[in-house]
Design brief:
With 172 residues, the protein is mostly beta strands. The chain has no helices and twelve strands. The strands form two sheets. Strands 1-12-3-8-9-10-5-6 form an eight-stranded antiparallel β-sheet, with no helix packed on it.
């Protein structure tokens, strides 16, 4: 199997806590896949749009552990919606960062785009408390190549220091 090479494409870091969106634009179409890395320094959960497309054509399926009642697994699906989301089933602890990665496969293909989303949060509203691990599969049902990534806070604003990084993946 060929090795993958990650090339840095771009990043954005928020300097203050007054905005609800962070983005990277001008993504070239010279890679096979994308890695979107998001480090959130607040209790806000991310909702993502490719090319800032607000059409009702995003779908997600999630597996979260622990669930809101402290159990081991909770499965959730939704769609169509106007964004791809990876939100926790609890309230994020604002003292620790939440880390999300979106692996976007075949982002320039002329068919729907699929992303594997991984998230880790320190949550306070789940009876079990502690770390929550999330795994999502998201679909953007659009034939346009991804050229920009916009991440919005599901509610409120992102804290200063929240960071978005985009990497291009080439298979060699």
């Amino acid at each position: 199997m060929p090795a993958a090479t990650y090339d840095f494409i771009g990043a954005a870091t928020l300097n203050d806590g007054t905005t609800d969106v962070i983005s990277v634009t001008s993504i070239p179409s010279t890679y096979t896949d994308l890695r979107v890395q998001l480090n959130i320094l607040s209790g806000a959960y991310p909702i993502l749009r490719f090319n800032n497309d607000g059409s009702n054509i995003y779908y997600t399926v999630a597996y979260q552990s622990p669930s809101s009642d402290g159990g081991s697994i909770q499965a959730t699906s939704n769609g169509p919606t106007t964004f791809m989301y990876a939100n926790s089933n609890g309230t994020a602890n604002t003292s620790y960062p939440s880390i999300y990665t979106y692996d976007v496969f075949n982002y320039t293909a002329s068919e729907f785009k699929m992303a594997l989303i991984n998230g880790t949060n320190d949550i306070t509203s789940v009876s079990a408390g502690g770390i929550q691990s999330e795994r999502w599969v998201g679909i953007w049902n659009n034939t346009t190549a991804v050229s920009s990534v916009y991440v919005y806070a599901a509610s409120g604003t992102f804290a200063a220091g929240t960071n978005l990084q985009i990497y291009g993946i080439k298979k060699e």
